[in-house]
Each structure stands twice: as C-alpha cells, then as structure tokens.
Specification:
Blueprint: E1 14-17, E2 22-24, E3 32-37, H1 44-55, H2 57-62, E4 65-71, H3 75-85, E5 90-93, H4 98-102, E6 106-111, E7 114-119, E8 122-126, E9 132-136, H5 144-148
Parallel strand pairs: 3-4, 4-5
Antiparallel strand pairs: 1-2, 1-5, 3-8, 6-7, 8-9
Length: 149
C-alpha cells in the first residue's frame, strides 16, 4: 500500500501525544524508532498489538528501539487507551491524517463486504539517521514484537 520503501528517508512528522506535548521525527535522532500505525484505539486487533508491544517493551528497549503508535484517534481517546491497557509508550493523535497520509497508509479498505477509507495497519522501523530500515505490512497483532526483532 505505501509508496515508501526500505532505504527511503522517513517522512518528517509532527504531532501531539497523549501528554499534550508535540513530538516530531527529529526527536528520535540517534535512536531506532518503531513507528506503528493502527486504525483505532480499543478495538480487538489494535488492543492485541499494543499489548504485545507492552508485554515485550523492555526487550524492545534493550534492543535500542523507541516505540511510537499513530492513529487518527484524539488525544483523549489515546489517554483512555493507554490507561486502560497500561501502555508504557507514546501514542500520537493524527486527527488530521497528515502523518498517516505522508507515510502512504490511508486508503480503501474492505471489511465484511463494506468498503471505506481507513488506516492500513503498517509498521515502519526507522534507523538512527531517519532512514526506513524495514516496513511490516502484514502485521501479526499478537506476535508483532517478533516481527520487529
């Protein structure tokens, strides 16, 4: 779905996380970033994915990764999702779809015979210099950490 490929410079982004702070790609300079895009807080697949990353958070940190989740949900929804699931990482509220569209993962989806526009669940592994190291498009929500490592 995305137009981006391994080796491309990751598109810059800027947005608000659950604490109300603004973050951008340059904040992760010198660190490896797991930038994961998901459709909606508190849905079964998105919760499974977030909890898999939560349960393996220390292992990801030990391997040098920072994690940032992105969805079109509001800051308020992110706060509730984080509190309910005790998530130790930040979630970016991309309500205007700016970051989602920059990464090329907004588009036509089909579910139960219905067609609609939405976020295609995709994870980008970005290296210390802002270069895309890997793109995971067939995300296994319950085993996502193993796909990353």
């Amino acid at each position: 779905m995305t137009h981006l490929e391994k080796g491309d410079k990751a598109p810059d982004f800027k947005g608000i996380i659950q604490s109300g702070e603004t973050v951008q790609l340059s904040d992760y300079q010198g660190k490896k970033l797991v930038l994961y895009f998901y459709p909606k807080d508190s849905t079964p697949g998105c919760t499974a994915q977030a909890c898999n990353l939560r349960d393996n958070y220390q292992q990801l940190l030990n391997n040098g990764y920072q994690i940032l989740g992105v969805s079109p949900d509001s800051v308020k929804r992110h706060v509730n999702f984080i509190n309910k699931n005790e998530l130790p990482f930040d979630l970016l509220a991309d309500t205007d779809l700016e970051t989602i569209k920059a990464y090329g993962i907004w588009g036509l989806k089909k579910f139960m015979g219905r067609e609609y526009d939405g976020v295609h669940r995709t994870t980008f592994i970005i290296d210390e210099n802002g270069i895309i190291e890997d793109i995971i498009q067939k995300v296994k929500t319950k085993d996502h950490t193993n796909q990353i490592l």
